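Annex B, item 7. Sequence and structure tokens for protein A, then protein B.
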Amino acid sequence: MDAAAGSGGSAGATQDGSISNGGTDGATPTFTFFVTSDKSATGNLGGLKAADQRCQSLAALVGQGQQTWHAYLSADSDPDSGNTPVNARDRIGEGPFYNSKGVLMAQDVDALHALLGDADLFLDENGNKVPGNWSGSPTPIEHDILTGSQADGTLAAGKTCDSWTSADSSTVAVVGHSDGLGPGGATTGTYTSWNAAHDNGSCADTAPKGGAGRLYCFAVH
């Protein structure tokens, strides 16, 4: 694990299953990242705004709706920002970043982008591991997470499912590996990248190559 792993403080499960300490007491939030448990069959997410709302809704279900959540997605053009290109790294705040179990992932954006994928670190909002190539994983593999980004978190031009509005087989998107593993557990080449492992098959179907249309979500604080 490449993260500075350790408890983020007082985060923990409440009786209703939510994660405590979202920062409303003035403390630094200790739950600021998750992989979505829900899925999308295609790359048409309804654009960045709809993707952000997806993150917000899932966060609310685990008691984190008081924070503002953004999807980690780059886009070739965003109507809400003057139809200009968008870099995923610019949408997620400055850190520190903690997963849904309160484990510190990275202190800042640069440290975040120096990480490798890790099934024990890149968890969904419920604290569950994402099915992938890790030993004992359930099937099917779903570790291909939509990002449309290069490894440094900047736009991978032309590889964003037309800014997350296309389900066309002629368009593609860059995906990362949440577990940092390739076929058979391989740890070579870009397989280790959590945000820029390879292009998906097409935006018409997120499943081939090991995806399910999941997203990374970050609390902006």
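Protein B:
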Amino acid sequence: MVVVDVAWTSNLGWPRKQLHMLVLVGIAYQYWAAAAWLLAATVPVVGELIGAALMHFQLSGMASSEAVPPSSYGSRRTPASPLMCYPYFYFQWNGMLEALGLREGFDARHNIRKAPMLWEAGAPRTLFVYGADKGFQFHPSWFEKKLEAREGCRVVGLRPATRGAGKVGHWLQTTAAAQLNDELDKFLQQQ
């Protein structure tokens, strides 16, 4: 298994301070993106325009703080669209339904016995690669230690390959593509 940048599961045992930060990130980023999609997909005539304005407002704020690489905002071959925000809506909507007890969890819906967590015996060999330069990581530090302790697993925090090359943050597929591809090649060749 290859996990890129976000090792999210509700079972990670987050410290209260980090859990509050994740909720704020969810509201500020994911709910905003989900709202942009919902407006664009459901409100006739003006919905896509309003959704696009919401999305561009959010991205421009992130781009000014260097959190978003240029290829994710300004210099795209395909213009960013609020309709690209569907995964955020889907993820949050399903999470809300499950939290309210209105829908069974994924494992129950698909008759899957509880699978071991990535750090537990019996889980697949895993490569976890993340951008080491983010101000906030989407995983607790103990997750790295437990995952690395498992045979065949590897954890890599990517940093710039050359001095002054910029930061490797959340969008490491863009900011450190060659390094990420090298790590994937090494991991897959070992399997």
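Comment on protein B: The longest helix spans residues 16-42.
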